[in-house]
Amino acid sequence: MTTGLRFAEQAVEASAANAPGSIKALRAEGSAAFQTLGFPTTRNEDWHYTNVSAISSGQYLPAIDSPVGAISADALAPFTFGADWPLVVFVNGRFAPDLSTLNTLPAGIRVLDMATASAEEPELLGKYLGTIAPATRDGFTALNAAFAGEGTFIHVAKEMVIEHPIHLLHVMDEQGANIMSHPRHVMVVERHAKASVVESYVSVADVPYFTNAVVEAFVEDGATLQVIRIQRESRQANHVGTVEARQGRDSHFLTFTFQTGANLSRSNVYTVLDGEGCGCTINGLYMLDGEQHGDHQTRVEHVKENCFSREAYKGLIDDSAHGVFNGKVYVHPEAQKTDGKQTNHTLLLSEKAQIDTKPQLEIFADDVKCTHGATVGRMDETALFYLKSRGVGKTLAKQLLMYAFAADVLETIDNPVIVEALETLTVERFTGSAHH
C-alpha cells in the first residue's frame, strides 16, 4: 500500500492528538482501519469505474492542522439562498463560529459543532458517532474517522418540527489550497419529529483540495428527515461524500444530491429500512463537462415488511466527462410487501461524453414489487428542430431541453426556495456563467 502510506502516517498522528473521548476513539479506529484498507482500487467492484489516484497521490495538509480562513459574511451571500435559515459555516474545513447563526433555534433542537458536542454532550454524541458509518466501511470512511474533529451534531427532540432547513455551508478560499477536510455530521431525528438539512460544498477560489464528508442520519419511528447535498466545488478539487441512514418504523428519509463541481467526485447514499412501513426517496442530478468524473453509488436495504423506496437520478454529461451510476436495492427475506422503484436517465451532450450505469436488484423475498431501469440518450433532434423552427436560437433551445429534462427530478425537493436556486444553477451551467 504505497499510495496512501503518507495518509496513514498522518492519520495515526491525528488519532494520537489531543481530542475528547468519543472523537479520540473514532480517530483510533479510523487510523487502524485505514492502515488495513488503504484507498479503494478499480479491482474493488464498487469502485470499478473510478480511479482515485488523483486523491491518493495528492499532497494534502489536514484541515485540523491548518488555521481557520478569514472570509466575510458578504462573500457567503451567493450560497445562502437569500434565506435567514440556521447556518453552520466551515471555512477551509474548520468551524467558523463568527459566520454561523444558530440563535434562532427553539428548545428541543440542538445544533452543535463537533468540539462543543463532545465537550457538552459526550454521552449523547458517543451513543451515535461512528455507529452507522463504521470506520471499517471503506478507506474513505476510515480516513474521515481518523481525522474526526470537525462537523456538526444535530439533535431534534421527539415531535419537534423545524420550520426551516438547517444549512451546513462548507466554503473553501485561496487559503484552502492543498487542504483535506473530513467533516462528520451526525443527525438524530427522534420519534415523530421532522427536520431538513442542506449540506453545501462550495468554493470561492479555483484551488486544489480534497473534501471527504460523512453523514450519519438516525431517523427514528415516525420521523422525517430530508438531506439535500449541493456539491459545487472548485474544478481542481476532489470530493467524496457519504450519507448513511438507519430508519425506524413509519419513518421517511429523503435525500437529493446535486452535483456540478469538482474534478473527481464520488457520492454514496446508503440507507437501511429497519422498521415496518418506512420509506425512502433518494434522488439526484449530476451535470458534468470538461474532463470531470462523477460517480454516484446508492444502496437501499429493505430489512422489514411493508416498506417503499423511490430512486431517480438524472445526468447531463458534456465534452469528455465521465459519469457513473450504480444503484443497489437489496431485499432481505423478511422484507415482504417491499415496493421499490429505481431509475437512472442520462443525456449525453457530446460524442466523447460517457456514462457507466448499473441499476441492480437483489431480492430474497417472494412477495415484492420492484422495478429498475436505465436510459442513455442524446439530445432530441426533433425537439431541437421544432424549437428552432419557432425562432428559438440553438443555444437557448438546447438549454430549454436540458432544463426540461432536469426539472422533474429537481421538483421532488420539498423546498421551493432550494428548487428555484438549483433550477437557476442548472440553466446557468450550460451558458458558461456558472462553471463551479
TrEMBL record:
Q: Which SUPFAM superfamilies match?
A: Stabilizer of iron transporter SufD
* Coiled coil location: none
Q: List, for all copies, the residue spans of the domain called SUF system FeS cluster assembly SufBD N-terminal.
A: 17-167
Residue stretches making up the SUF system FeS cluster assembly SufBD core domain: 176-405
Tell me the InterPro entries matching this sequence: Fe-S_cluster_assembly_SufBD (IPR055346), SUF_FeS_clus_asmbl_SufBD_core (IPR000825), SUF_FeS_clus_asmbl_SufBD_sf (IPR037284), SUF_FeS_clus_asmbl_SufD (IPR011542), SufBD_N (IPR045595)
A single GO BP term for this record reads: iron-sulfur cluster assembly
Family membership: Belongs to the iron-sulfur cluster assembly SufBD family.
* Protein name, per record: Fe-S cluster assembly protein SufD
